[in-house]
Design goal:
globular; five-stranded parallel β-sheet; alpha/beta; 176 residues
Amino acid sequence: MNRNIALIGFMGSGKSTAGQRLARRLGREFIELDQLIEQRAGKTIPEIFKEMGESGFRDLEEAVIEEVSRSAKNAVIALGGGAVLRPFNVERLKTSATLVYLETEVEVLQDRLARSRKRPLLDRPDRDRIIEELHEARRSLYETAAGITVRTGRRPFAAVINEIIEKLGIDESRNR
């Protein structure tokens, strides 16, 4: 398989951690899209949101997705939670990647995101309600975009990685 694997899902669903572990196990490059956006902008994501708003951030995200879709080969890519909000991003990613939705229950997300200070959309006192509303609004976008879905919840990452590999039909003996 020479296609990229792109992990999608809500913030806190484990895309970065699962992506790093999956890439290491398969001997592939790992690309964390939010880190790449910060490198290109020379600013943190909270700074980008503060200076440019969500729309400005989404423009940067779209440009980086375009770049990665053209240049990355056989990589594991962890996308930001809102990457699916623009249909162009999904269409572009599908040209070079299989999209894997890491589906996570709202309660688990609320627990994982309770103390995070790097999430501008959650920088509010009603964080749990916002997580619930955003999750509900985005869930169908993740489901529609995904080639496969893997439930994460409170499962060990090793089990999640095994399921991704199995569902993608990757023969690990051929990856080495």
